[in-house]
Amino acid sequence: MLNNIGIPGLLLIAVVVLVLFGRGKVSSLMGEVGKGITAFKKGVKDGTEEIENDTAEAARDVTPKPKKDKA
């Protein structure tokens, strides 16, 4: 169904949305979408750093030290 929408169809949809909601609402909505994308990217970056830190901590040498024999 969505395979047949091309550039003219997208332009028509954009014009209809602009007429229905007005320029102010559409621009504020796009600003909120931009903020959401920025927050998502920051969250992904923080999550990746956290995983890397956990992996580095788990990769440290935890081999038990040999016990000295009491002879």
UniProtKB/TrEMBL annotation:
Pfam families: TatA_B_E. Residues 50-71 are annotated as: Disordered. It comes from the Bacteria. The Tat system comprises two distinct complexes: a TatABC complex, containing multiple copies of TatA, TatB and TatC subunits, and a separate TatA complex, containing only TatA subunits. Substrates initially bind to the TatABC complex, which probably triggers association of the separate TatA complex to form the active translocon. It comes from Albidovulum salinarum. Coiled coil: none annotated. The lineage of its organism: Bacteria, Pseudomonadati, Pseudomonadota, Alphaproteobacteria, Rhodobacterales. Belongs to the TatA/E family. The chain crosses the membrane at residues 6-22. Keywords: Cell membrane, Membrane, Protein transport, Translocation, Transmembrane, Transmembrane helix, Transport. Residues 57-71 have a biased composition (Basic and acidic residues). This is Sec-independent protein translocase protein TatA. Its main location: membrane. The keyword tRNA-binding does not apply. Part of the twin-arginine translocation (Tat) system that transports large folded proteins containing a characteristic twin-arginine motif in their signal peptide across membranes. TatA could form the protein-conducting channel of the Tat system. It is a single-pass membrane protein. It is found in: Cell membrane.
